Amino acid sequence: MGAPPTAPGASGATPTTSTAPPLVDVATEQDLLRHVASTAAAAGAAPGFADGFASDARIVAWLARARRFRREAADPLPASATAAFLAATKRLSPSRIQAASDCPHRFFLANVAKVPEDDAPLRGTSADRRRFGTWIHRALEQAVRAPDARPDEIVAAVMAEASADVPDDADRAWYAEDLERIVALFRVREADARASGYAPHARDVEISFGTGGADEDDGGDADVVRGHVVRLGSGAGAFVLTGRIDRLDTNDAATGPRRAIVVDYKTTAATAIRAARGLLRSEELQLALYARAIEQVRGVTVVGVEHYAAMQPVRAATADERAAGAFLLRRDAGRPAKVLATAEFQESFLRGAERRASEVVATVRKGADGGHAKTPLDRTRCERCGVRDVCRPDVRRFALVAARPDDVEPPDDDEGDDA
Fold first, then answer.
1. Residue 340: phi, psi to the nearest 5?
2. CB 394 within 8 A of CB 379
3. Sheet holding 301-309, edge to edge
4. Using an 8 Å Cβ cutoff, are 184 and 211 in contact?
5. Cβ contacts of residue 209 below 8 Å, gap of 6+?
6. Which residues on adjacent β-strands are paired with residue 308?
7. What is the number of alpha carbons within 13 Å of residue 337 lying toward its C-beta?
8. Which tops the pLDDT comparison, 357 or 168?
């Protein structure tokens, strides 16, 4: 894994000079290696010329430079840096905890070193995907707040707010058509789901809590629970959670405990299903942490979490057995909820996610002593990472992860739909 890169031509193939850039234009490891090959070929080196590299100081230096295009491990830090890790974990959103769970080094670069992030995937992104996800959230929020408004009225208001982002009339019309269909479908789905006994109310959409968190926006019509500090975790991993919940559906019980379902909007069915599977494997923590938070904030008992696909009639849900009947009436296109025994749902699923988050926070707080390790070196996640240019992951190691297909998720074409 730590071996130097194999020089072009070492395998016996004749080196080519046709695409080798001049040294001043070298931008990647492969550019530099092609330049090495070009230089050696111009000097008359025959196939198998790698053996002669050791006698050429320029080529030895260039190969050493090529290795610097990737960093196999995190750089060592002074012990004094640990204080910065503690400051960065004083208040945390689920997205930051998730980033630290996926890769502590990503959390370090983005939130401790504060490296500016590039949120475009390495392989490019579909046009305005993140922006469209934000509009979906806004449209569905207004659909709950204004139950008598027509889909076209809701969408017109959303697109009016977005006019500066989409100045072209034809583009706005294209987005509006899709959003109207989503809102109309939402109306039908919610009418059918009311039979479950759980429904959202105007005060139960876009619920912000733990004001002052770096990741949240308290503006607009969000229901902000000001001054309510949500404390989760324990010991070295205790933390204050901040965030915003898309929607809370409650049973409005006149007597007995008030129960609730936490709903998170996703753009597509594929994204919703993938998130639900990750949650069951304790890889995705956001919705379970929101459930733990809202129990403190609103005094409810959460009996289900639901990833709601906006563009297709699919809800990917995990439920407490006490709400199994309700979820049968919320299943949309026939995808059943994953029903867990009450003890398993409350202890292993919800509190288990809190314990996992606490472990992640405790690890990050080790700071210079292992709190910024590079993991998992997964092609899908690394290519989407906003700090990859500074991290410079060793792409040769992606093959090791790809050999274990169960550990690798397919590319997420809807990343960023969580406004």
1. -115, 150
2. no
3. 223-225, 199-209, 243-250, 259-266, 301-309, 314-320, 338-340
4. no
5. 224, 225, 228, 230, 241, 242, 243, 244, 245, 293, 294, 297
6. 265, 315
7. 28
8. 357
Q: Quick check: 55 pLDDT over 80? A: no
Q: Could you read off the pLDDT of 192-233 as tens digits, one per residue?
A: 999 999 999 999 999 999 864 333 333 443 444 555 789 999
State both tokens at 13.
């193939």
Q: SS3 for 348-382, per residue?
A: HHHHHHHHHHHHHHHHHCCCCCCCCCCCCCCHHHH
- Each residue's pLDDT tens digit, 374-396: 876 667 777 778 887 788 777 66
The H or E element that residue 305 is part of is: strand 301-309
CA dihedral of residues 196, 198, 202, 205 (deg, nearest 10): -110
Tokens of 220: 């607009």
Using CA atoms, how far apart are residues 88 and 207, in angstroms rounded to an integer?
24
Contacts 24+ apart (CB under 8 A), 8-11: 8/33, 8/34, 8/36, 8/37, 9/37, 9/40, 9/41, 9/45, 9/47, 9/48, 9/49, 9/50, 10/48, 10/49, 10/50
Tell me the two tokens of residue 42.
Answer: 């111009």
Q: What's the chain's average pLDDT? A: 79
